[in-house]
């Protein structure tokens, strides 16, 4: 067990536990249902922290999902990042494994900040995560700033683990999907219906997905019929990819709003639809994700 410092946010309708030093994570998020029950909107993490569990919610920076062998070329330079998970590829960038600091705090809101000076990822940058509890929703605003003197390839997003019940559904409008190999790396782009099916509403317990959908309109709806509750997700541009992870038989799943495809930095050498962004020196990129719970009739 690892003890980490926690901080909290609480309003009449929401309760959050935050772990700034552990990747700027939301460790738990509860919402008070109109009938008085407190429900977990995010699968809560163990406290003290019990290793690399699939729980909580963390920001993804400077890229999401997997980067093949941790290597890519940009502007004539080969960049090699050290492996950060047991698999052969580097996953989720590095922000989720670095300490963040509390940059500001007020009633129902907190701003977490991560400063990157440059290492194996040679581009210095800063990113802030503003977490706000509004009367009807949780809003997370991500703002990245290129603090270097050269252009920087970039991508970001949010990685929430949601509770999964036998009747949980996920509804979203997506156009295409990246089929993947045995290492969960993209092989070809196809129609979303090839993996999602023909109906917009996916039954989570009947799916086995770990892939990125493209052409997402930024809206998704989760429903937990047994709990009498649902959750609307709204993501601003450039978060137009949705990574869906539904491990069979698990009590959790992921619907991750992100800005680009898996391995976008390598795929971008031959295609222009990966979502990879290049930030000029001094340029800022911002987005916001809202999670709005509601009671089911």
UniProtKB/TrEMBL annotation:
Pfam families: Aldose_epim. CDD domains: Aldose_epim_Ec_YphB. This is Aldose 1-epimerase. It comes from Kaistia terrae.
